Input
Amino acid sequence: METLFLLVETEVGRLDEVLQRIRTVPSVTEVQAVTGPFDLIVKVQAPHINQALDTVIHRIRKIPGIKSTETLVTVATA
Output
């Protein structure tokens, strides 16, 4: 299973709406509101990294109210 984390900045006043829509996206296993330059952190898991990235590009980033995102792909460590 591949995992990535997505940092999401939302438009002002749209945090709750975006959070609820992201929760309905397949492969999203967790969404949390956070403080700092981003508003949400999203955990995406899929059998292959290409599927996880496809979820980000074609599903999450198209949600209205998202201002910007930053994708962090996890790496295996020994």
Notes: The longest strand covers residues 2-10. The beta strands are 2-10, 28-33, 40-46, 66-73. Residues 8 and 69 are 5 Å apart (CA to CA). The chain has one domain: 2-68.
